[in-house]
Prior knowledge:
The chain is of the alpha+beta class. It contains nine helices and eleven strands. It has two domains: 19-48 and 273-313; 57-267, no CATH class.
Amino acid sequence: MGGIKCRGSRSQQWIGAGIGLEMKTFIEEYCRIIGLLMLGFVFIFLLSSPSTLFAKTITTIDTELSHASKDAMPVRAKMDFGNNEHMRAFPNNIGGWVGSEHNTTRVAESLGADVMLMRNYVNPETFQPVIFLIVQSKNHSSFHPPIVCYPALGYTIEEEGKAWIPLRNLSWVGEPLYTQPAKRLHRRSYLTIPVKKLIVVKKSNADGKVTQRRVVLYFYVKESPFSPDTFTMIRVSALAPAEGSYDGILNLTTEFMGNTIPCMFELRKEEPVLLIRLASGSVIGKVAIGLLLLVPIATIFYPQIKRRQKSLHK
């Protein structure tokens, strides 16, 4: 029995030695690939900003719903558009505009909306009301963009294009990421954000005369590329004269929307990458950079280091 046990022990030693040899061979054979991958991850880490690595969500505002357009702008949302409490806490007084709530229960049910805020805002200087709407839905089939919704309500689209929302109070704005030196915000007195613009009219069935005309401005909020089934739209609309120029109402709606945007968003601030932060900080930061680079470099040159150690021991 003792002999059998001894032979089993030797077999285990041979198997263990074989596995150890295979592991050593694997590490020596693939150490360069492993080291290069590690080095790539280190460079990605060092050349990223803290907000890029640790941001909870990636939020953009855009004029298009189905794809990212050239108008897409990275922002930080100050509120959760999927939270009814956040919606109810939205300011009733914005730059002199005073809001009054709409009962949206039936509208939300008909649209299949998860969260909806609809208010009339009036400026005492003009007494011209504007309708402010935030709607979020996870049901793609029931989410109707204005270009579809207004014709379904009996309107005709008279004009479609873009409008530019001026943001003259930039105290809430930081520098956008990757801003070119010539476009720094401190060289501009204001920033403009593009939004969709619709001019819609409703006509009399009897004589085809225009009975109602509206200016509609809207854009979409895309919270994360990992939740593509959640749709949020922000819309401002107001009645315009049935005939003639609508410029006065367009200016009014763009001004109001410009007042609401800082209540919801702030632009992503330009931040130094982690490499610059660590290198310009304390000695610990510089040591951390050295260690982060040393580990993958040592892995790449592991066979040479091992041979060098063996030659020194001889």
